[in-house]
Write a structure and sequence with these properties.
The complex is a heterodimer. Chain A is mainly beta. Chain A has no helices and eleven strands. In chain A, a hairpin with a 2-residue loop joins β7 and β8. The radius of gyration of chain A is 14 Å and the shape is globular. The N and C termini of chain A lie far apart (37 Å). By secondary structure, chain B is mainly beta. Chain B has no helices and eleven strands. In chain B, strands 2, 4, 5, 9, 10 and 11 form a six-stranded mixed beta sheet that branches. A five-stranded antiparallel beta sheet of chain B has the order 1-3-8-7-6, with no helix packed on it. Chain B is globular. Classes of the chains: A mainly beta, B mainly beta.
């Protein structure tokens, strides 16, 4: 079974704090993603990475950065947390299989972040 | 126009009913297609991939019409446990790197 594990289920941080959200996958997937999910807005892509040390901006990268130093780990960093970053954060991973194009994304359990 | 659109919902149906969800996507370069299920305050989980010829998994049937850029999900004999939000997902990237999610349609199956 593919496992994507996020370091925290619930997190409360203060405005201005630097926040690290960690994600680890155990299936040697090339692609890893960070999304946030807000009521009425669905899942929005923040960043994704297709290889170690590689990253691409998603739809809403402002206020976030990422790090992928090892293939299995993808970290999301909120440089200076703000109240509008209160959200559910979801990490996902997927493989690259040329002979099997319908490879799905597997999600972690989510981190519900509250910034006060 | 949103890239992936779904029925707004919510759908409230009695147990045993048949319910159909519709989804349209705007990018004709979309490569692969999925239905995910998301329970309240949980992560999305794959329900089924959607293949060009259509596919069935028990009570669930998915259809894809590439010409119309339309995907559907049919649930027969609804169970209480089917209550969830159903997300239509397309992947535009050649290497599985660009998943685009629809807003979801909430289903409540009532006793």
């Amino acid at each position: 079974d593919v496992k994507v594990t996020q370091s925290s289920r619930y997190l409360v941080k203060r405005t201005g704090e630097k926040v690290f959200l960690e994600c680890v996958q155990d299936m040697d997937h090339e692609n890893m993603f960070w999304y946030r999910q807000d009521p009425g807005l669905g899942l929005r892509l923040i960043y994704f990475s297709y290889d170690v040390k590689m990253k691409e901006k998603g739809d809403i990268p402002e206020g976030y950065s990422v790090s992928r130093e090892k293939k299995e780990r993808f970290s999301l960093i909120l440089e200076s947390a703000s109240t509008n970053q209160t959200s559910m954060y979801l990490c996902a991973s997927s493989s690259v299989l040329v002979d099997r194009p319908n490879t799905e994304a597997f999600f972690g359990q989510g981190t519900r972040l509250t910034v006060v | 126009r949103k890239e992936v659109e779904q029925d707004p919902g919510p759908f409230n149906v009695p147990e045993g009913a048949t319910v159909a969800f519709n989804c349209t996507y705007s990018n004709s370069a979309s490569q692969s297609f999925f239905w995910y299920r998301q329970d309240c305050r949980k992560e999305p989980k794959l329900l089924m991939s959607v293949y060009s010829s259509g596919n069935e998994d028990g009570r669930f049937t998915a259809q894809l019409n590439r010409a119309s850029q339309y995907i559907s999900l049919l649930i027969r004999d609804s169970k209480l446990s089917d209550s969830a939000t159903y997300l239509c997902v397309v992947n535009i990237g050649n290497y599985g790197q660009n998943f685009v999610f629809g807003p979801g349609t909430r289903l409540s199956v009532l006793p």
